[in-house]
Amino acid sequence: MAFSKNKLILFNLFIMVFFLLTFVNAQNPTTEFEISSILVDGCDGGNEGKNEMVIFQNGPNPLDINNIRVDGAGATGIVQIGKWPNNGNSFLGFCTTLGATSNIATLNSAITQCGKLIEPVGGIIPKYGKILIITSTDFTASPTYFSNLTDTLYVVFQCAGNTAGHFVNYNSTSSSRTLILTNTISGYRDTISYDPSLLLNSSGNPGSGDGGAVRYDWNGNATYFNNGCQAPFIPLSINTDPIGVIDCSSNSYNLTGNILSGSYKKIFWDGGIGTFSNSLALSTTYTPGAGELGLITLRFNAIDICNDTIRSLVNLTIYPQPISNAGNDTTLCSSIPGSIGSTPIIGSTYSWNPAIGLSSSTAAQPSITLLNTSNLPITTSYILTTTISGTGCTMNDTVEIIINPLDNANFSLSSNCNGAIANLSGLVGGTFTFSTIPSDGATLNSLNGTITSGVNGTTYSVTYTTSGICPNTQTQTVILPIRDDASFITSPNCFGGTSNIIGTSNGIFSFTSVPSDNATINSTTGELSNGTPEQTYYITYTTNGTCIDSNNDSIKVLKKPDAPIFQSYAEICLSENLPYILPYTTLTDTTNWYSDINLTNLISSNDSIQLFNQIGATNYYATSILNGCESLPTLISVTINDCTIDIPTAFTPDGDLVNDKWELINIDYLYPNNTVKVFNRWGYVLFESPIGKYESNSWDGNFNGETMPVGSYYFIIEFNKEDKKAESGTISIIR
Predict the structure, then answer these.
(1) C-alpha neighbours within 13 Å on the C-beta side of residue 557
(2) Which CATH number goes with the domain that contains 624?
(3) Each residue's pLDDT tens digit, 621-631
(4) Are 361 and 287 in a shared domain?
(5) Closest Cα partner for 562 from 636, 630, 493, 494?
(6) Are 132 and 153 in contact, with CB atoms under 8 Å apart?
(7) ∠ CA 121-123-128 to the nearest 5 degrees?
(8) Does residue 504 share a domain with residue 585?
(9) pTM of the predicted model, to two decimals?
(10) SS3 (DSSP) at 109
């Protein structure tokens, strides 16, 4: 649709008003950038989408506008990347056209003040630059209404394409819309929000109407305004806060200047002969010069963009200062009273700070008592504020109070067996005394605190008094230790003996005289080892307490018994009832029997032991036990044989030395009274052995020197033992 001339004029009127009102804030951002204002409801009717605006100010570093992205959140509160607060409109990026550049030139040619509009070269915004975002390169402009512009603005354009509004206009229902400018390189972002229900109409009330806008301080606080579509020139306007109290030359004055409207290049304070804490700040503190009294006029000055200076005056009436005398610096002892201040003056009141230790915080000359528990002097400053009652004028004076600690009277008492020794850690040069004089004859050295001739187990109390600038006393007690008891008893054994402490434990055992043999003593337990039997050793036990005691005793090592003596055993036949081994000597407590030479496997502790019922040689090791001492072992070796008799039925007496005799093995051993007879078939005796001597006279198959022929021969074996019958049969000669 085509715009009427009046609508174009109104639109451009609003642009200028928007610029001027937005840039009242003259302070620069300390962050990357800060959003200053937004134009929500433009003056161009249905074509607002091309002519809405955002103004923000750059921070202390140059900024590339091409790194800035618009993000927004609608009524849902969900931020959408690359979306304006009106969710239907996307951010199209920044660009320019020849037409937009031509329009900027036209606008600049019509400016009659010191302001100007600049398109940034390459999109680079200088530090602290003020940026105007116009939402389309197709914006419309009329140069007439920019003639009073007094500021420099860097103008950038969103690429053309959006025709609908980028913001949501007035709506009676409260909600929130959010605009975010994001630096896509650094990640920094600035966020502002507005409530469409708070937008104002031209009457200044919540409602719909062209010109509805919002401006923001650097904390994001919103101010809603609507100046309609007028174009008044808004000059720089300032004032100062009044001085609310009567002050005096002794005090400083807090001054505040205010920028009511417009933009400024510089502000400063001047006037008087005193000094300003910061003459270039809106708020400052003025301290009057020496002798500056009566009516004094100070000036708050502001220079606008076009270098014109305006002033606002502040009048001060300075009254004479009171006399405040906190007294001379004083040194006191901890807990010892003193005084500060001076004689009071009629018409003045007094106040001390701090009030600690003072008898009164409002007296001109109070007493003071302070405690110092440290080891070094402590300095405390007291400020006296003197006020003249008629004018309220005040004056301060300071006094320093040095509080010395009381002398260090610290000491300790270390007891010994006859008394105690004082260990002084405090100030030397004082005097030691008994707190209560003892009646047991103990004495005290007043110079070093040594107690002598004390009684063990007695408690003594000693006081030390210093003689320094701040005398002090301390009292300590000491109990003299009880003497150690070195009593012990000894018990001998076969290798040495043991000691049993009766008195004080944890002492040391030693030989009273070092023995010449290999005997050793355990210094902790007193156990005697490797002793020589029947040798006496002398032992000393010495305690290691405060009051050492020593005692002697002796140990005579017990004699070991002789090894047991046994009858000898050769070979024994295996039987169900084997004999017992009995020692010849029995003068012992008992006999230990072992199965190994190392005496590790004990098999019996009796005077005798029954033999193992097993064939072969078995070694037994026996020791004698007497008074707990064990003798060296005696070896008893016993061989048990299987003694059954094998009666061969034939033999071959052919002289080849194999089976040439009729052998009856074990017969002599088992049956020592045996006789053996051999007969021919006619009953004639061919062979008869001597009694018990068959094995050494075995039949060789001969009779009277002649070899018997092959054949069978009859034999009779008489065992001659009870319950053992004779055996008979035939024996064959084979060749």
Answers:
(1) 19
(2) 2.60.40
(3) 988 888 888 88
(4) no
(5) 630
(6) yes
(7) 95
(8) no
(9) 0.39
(10) helix
